[in-house]
Amino acid sequence: MAQKSWGEMTPTQKKVVAVAGVVEVVVTAWCVKDLKQRPAALVRGPKMLWVPALAVQPVGPIAYLVWGRKR
């Protein structure tokens, strides 16, 4: 399947892409804030290694939320 350019997308496809982008930014910002405020004892692994991991979209933020935080 060939990728479509923005101009070739339907209005519905454009809305889905825009909403997905906003969700991605919000979840990443939430993870960064949580990582900054959470004590190191409640984070699996070094906190400084999670910072670049959060930049790997969308895997990094999801991995942090699922595996990176201790309860």
Give the overall pLDDT as a whole number: 95
- Low-pLDDT segments: none
The DSSP helix count reads 3
Report the sheet with the most strands, covering strand number, pairing sense and barrel closure: none
Structural class: mainly alpha
Secondary-structure element pattern, one letter each: HHH
State the separation between the terminal residues, measured CA to CA.
42 Å
Tell me the overall shape: elongated
Count of DSSP strands: 0
Total domain count: 1
Helix fraction by DSSP (H/I, runs of at least 4): 55-70%
Radius of gyration: 16 Å
What fraction of residues sit in β-strands?
under 5%
Protein name: PLD nuclease N-terminal domain-containing protein
Subcellular location: Cell membrane
Pfam families: PLDc_N
Transmembrane segments: 48-67
Give structural notes.
The structure is a single chain. By secondary structure, this protein is mainly α. It has one domain (13-68). It contains three helices and no strands. It has helices at 11-37, 47-53, 59-68. The longest helix is centred in the middle third of the chain and has 27 residues, at 11-37. The protein starts with 10 loop residues before the first helix and ends with a helix. The model has no long low-confidence stretch (mean pLDDT 95). Pfam families: PLDc_N. It is found in: Cell membrane. This is PLD nuclease N-terminal domain-containing protein.
